[in-house]
Amino acid sequence: MTKRKGNRVILSFICFILGSMLAFSYQYTKREASKRNITDRQWQKEYDYRERLIKIQKENRRLKNELVQKQNEVVEMEKALAEQQTSYTDLAKQAEKLRMYVGEAKVKGKGIEITLSDASYIPSEQSATDYIVHEQHVFKVIHELLISGAEAIAINGQRISHRSYIVCNGPVIEVDGTQHAAPFVISAIGNPTVLASALNIPGGVKDQLIQDNIIVRIASKDEIVLDPIFHANHP
Predict the structure, then answer these.
(1) Which of 188, 68, 54 is nearest to 116 (CA)?
(2) Domain locations in the chain as residue ranges
(3) Superfamily of domain 106-233
(4) Does the structure show a pLDDT above 50 at 234?
(5) Confidence at 233, pLDDT banded by 50, 70, 90
(6) Cβ(147)–Cβ(139) under 8 Å?
């Protein structure tokens, strides 16, 4: 009887132990399952966030590349506009220079004035024409000034151009239909040193004019103002 009672105690103890183990196992499994479910949800959220971040980064790279491309296009457009502006500026300068050369624009600048006067003493009336200024004398001066770089020329304030004509008409010289009497003041805009040196070359224009009994005076000017041909001919 005592032996049976002992067996029952042992069996009850074993059952208790087994029940405790089963209960612990159940609770542990439940907790682990619960933990695993939370981790899965968190992982899913992190995955979604990561996917969104990757998409945003890709979009940012695309927009950045597009921005760089647009910036390059803007730079190219600015270069083209700058070149175009430079071209327009050059064309405007060329047009202004051409208007200056043909006498259609008012100009001012440094230059020289050459005064051609008839001889102060004429030996006889028969030889008077040998002591006065003729159109060929004026032509010599103008030609030398032009090949020496004169930018604009006037005779007694009247602008001349590539179409101008100069002829003798008795004791006066006619320039484009307008008569001028001696002395003749030829104004030229350009480098004063260069222009004066060209006329003063030994055996050059000045010496030739002096040999023809013409009085020649050359003066450098800090500023010469020449009106356009229209204003010069129609004051």
Answers:
(1) 188
(2) 1-101, 106-233
(3) Protein of unknown function DUF881 (3.30.70.1880)
(4) no
(5) very low
(6) no
